[in-house]
Amino acid sequence: MQIGYKLFAEDVAPKELIHRAVEAERAGFDFVEISDHFHPWLPEHQHSSFAWAILSAIAAQTTTLRLATGVTCPSIRYHPAIVAQAAATLQIISDGRFTLGVGAGERLSERIVGEGWPEVGDRHARFREALEIIRLLWSGGTHSYRGEHLRLEDARVYDLPERLPEIVVAAGGPQAAALAAELGDGLFSTDPDASLVEAWTSAGGSGPRYAEAPTAYAADARAGAEAAHRRFRFGSLGWKVLAELPDPAAFDQATQAVRVEDMQESFACGPDVERHVEVVSQFVDAGFDHVALMDASEDPDAFMTFFADELGPRLRGL
């Protein structure tokens, strides 16, 4: 199993994200993954930097740490040709350490380019076309593409790595899992859902299976739950809601009923290593083999020490 650290770009300043990635490598993490949004989720969040610039800086300051987007939408805010070029370049400068995590996006960040927010069927159709365009450009040479939603005209990615990045596709149900099996090299999810992994493998999927485990290291469980509530209460809404709300104010309104106690039920809160192992084990038991710790800690340096000394060795034994 590979253990990762989530770089939560919505609530951490750009240089601090880079620092945390360097510290994650020192603490023994295998990879980092970074969210790729234009806007943050909640009013409490005060950042949302450009993920590709952060990843490039991390690549220059680390040597073994693998990098991933978790996840980027290649079909609305970005054109897939730009994502194909960016991912190929990052794979080169990181010496083959990059994984392209992709998803169909959320209204929160994708609507900013003024093309509206497509209904779910059109979003998934655009997403399929985007993956086809990326694969086409990564095959080498000059290509054009005319889909129902996306176009490509005489485009070529000139700098291609010797080994292409893996594409890991986010899925929340069997239809998306089938798409991940068809056009992706791996699966990405935020839920410990064994049926999703089974749907993916049944559709012919093979390769890495990425997930994010919710943790909140703190001096005690209550402090951890309060930190998780401030940073991650939006996650309790579920993806059908997460994809549709337009701005941080809407997410704030939608999460008014979420309690600190609710976070303690889903997050590994506090310093108890057994509780952290219990939460991560749900994802391992569901079939995921790349698990990023999405830690809500107020003291990331203390969490890194906790991981290096206690949690990491325990998770390696799962």
Automatic annotation (TrEMBL):
It comes from the Bacteria. Keywords: Oxidoreductase. Residues 12-290 form the Luciferase-like domain. The keyword DNA damage does not apply. InterPro entries: F420-G6PD/mer, F420_G6P_DH-rel, Luciferase-like_dom, Luciferase-like_sf. GO terms for molecular function: oxidoreductase activity, acting on paired donors, with incorporation or reduction of molecular oxygen. Pfam families: Bac_luciferase (PF00296). NCBIfam families: F420_G6P_family. This is F420-dependent oxidoreductase, G6PDH family. It comes from Agrococcus jejuensis.
